[in-house]
């Protein structure tokens, strides 16, 4: 088993009275809000990420499209409603059970577009390569990009390549941007969540983050856990065939389902009540998270979505999701409520409740 102790920390029971502990040596140090430099938590999708955007980027760019802070910007252009999104992928390792950097880069941007109800159409790719990386590795990732684009029915229309000196990168980074068309009558955004909405997740959670961590740390859990990375535009199209009045869609990537629900609750000023036993967590993921000290609600997913659906359409939408290959494990896990606005609360099987707060940083860095 891999040694999970953080560098700079002594084993339990060790006398550390004369030992200086250097937090800078930790693999993923607990980020502090008054940090004068960037820390790993700034990229984790939690409170630190939100502060970075709100305090640095939003004031610098200053426009209403960015202020919406949705997965993709939606705007009118030449009489059409366009969705536009971009994302960078720095996953380590480059290859993991169920996928690799290449298909992750395609599916992630395709899914960001789909969360606005858009039909993704075109992508760009930008590769940053580190000097010394094997061309066979680059070729394998490029082929994965092509295969994933074909599977998602999108065209990689343009791209760019840069090379940095050895030691100034981590093999391969990929940035993708994408555009798609939003059908008339579709208005999907976090602020549309309403009390009474059914909260539905498209399948089991936590698989991607645990799959990446298992390879990175050389851990074995008795069964291989594979990433759920997949394009979700087809699933969203099937949901929209039932009703165009879907209130919110979000793919719970960095920070997992817990973070996505907190962002929706805060944007809409409503509360979210989950039923603990209704949230689908595979047994192998639950066991792995228990071993690693992780909460599955905060573990990243790359082929799942959470939907806020008006109650009168909930059962029909759930049935349509379960009939689609990417939604066979869909489950209704709770509802949007007027109580505790801006908060996510879980009703436990023992009759109690617990708050699912927005995490400060992230449990697992470099998982997308």
Kindly describe this structure.
This protein is of the alpha+beta class and 368 residues long. The chain has two domains: 71-181, PurM-like, N-terminal domain (60s Ribosomal Protein L30, Chain: A), CATH 3.30.1330; 190-356, PurM-like C-terminal domain (Phosphoribosyl-aminoimidazole Synthetase, Chain A, domain 2). 28% of the residues lie in helices and 22% in strands. It has a seven-stranded mixed beta sheet. The chain has a five-stranded mixed beta sheet with strand order 1-2-7-5-6, with helices on one face. The chain is globular, with a radius of gyration of 21 Å.
Spatial shape = globular
- Work out the count of structural domains: 2
Number of strands: 14
Which class of the largest domain in CATH terms? Alpha Beta
* Alpha-beta classification: alpha+beta
Query: What kind of sheet is the major sheet?
Result: 7 strands, mixed
Low-confidence blocks of residues: 1-32
Instruction: List the strand order in the largest sheet.
Output: 9-11-8-12-10-13-14
Order of helices and strands: HHEEEEHEHEEEHHEHEHEHEEE
CATH fold annotation of the largest domain:
Phosphoribosyl-aminoimidazole Synthetase, Chain A, domain 2
CATH homologous superfamily annotation of the largest domain? PurM-like C-terminal domain
CATH architecture of the largest domain: Alpha-Beta Complex
Average pLDDT rating = 88
- Proportion of residues in extended strands: 15-25%
